[in-house]
Amino acid sequence: MMEKLSIIYEPKGAAREYAELALNLYRGCLHRCIYCYNNGRFGKKGDFFKSAKPRLGIVQKVVGDCRILKDKYGDNCPEIHLTFLGDAYQPAESTLGLTGMIIRQLIGFNLPFTILTKSSTIKRDIDLLTNYRKFSLGMSFTSVDQREVNDWESGTGYIQDRIEVLRRFKSHGIKTWVSLEPVMSVRSTIKVIDMIHPNVDLFKVGALNHMEPPESINRVEAHRAIMEVLEFRHCNYEFKKSFTDL
Q1: pTM for this one?
Q2: How far apart are CA 66 and CA 112, in angstroms?
Q3: Measured distance CA(136)–CA(62) in Å, rounded
Q4: What are the structural domains of the chain?
């Protein structure tokens, strides 16, 4: 019987569509995305956006969990997703370097992992990640219009920085994927695909479930319209159950 993991875990529900294993590094997030499903889960609305603090004893716990996973799976461990609870590259990451420390442990144990982020801070670790073939970069996009980004993701900075990070990692031979979740606007989602598709190995598309989008979306029509563009651009893609189980 495998020892119990202390901080790496098996996600459930919609998160399970992304990964079999996951790891959350910070509690809280300063990106302040209006569609964030964590806002209100840990106190009052808005509390989640007030700070981003490292989880207590996380480095030591990750090392222990890595040993357990290595013993169980050897070189065939399922991919570990960083993160579902906020972004691994919070503003504090520039000084703390916590995610960089965790990356080194995952690489040291030869475990596969992916990082989903909206932050250009990840470029700091590009040399560390370039030659590690069990890593993939995920970037999250809802729009490439800076005005919409400012409205929907006010703490994330310039969208062109995100686009440039994606291009740079792809040019270094790193596998890339993009989360088009949630679809806030079909028009905006299509613009994202048109702009960034040459630097994306896989698109993952999901609907907005827990609030009303800025504009009314018919999911059947949205699924068809987005899929047509992905097919036209010869993209690899996956639609989450929020679009397919209607």
Answers
A1: 0.93
A2: 11
A3: 19
A4: 13-244 (3.20.20.70)
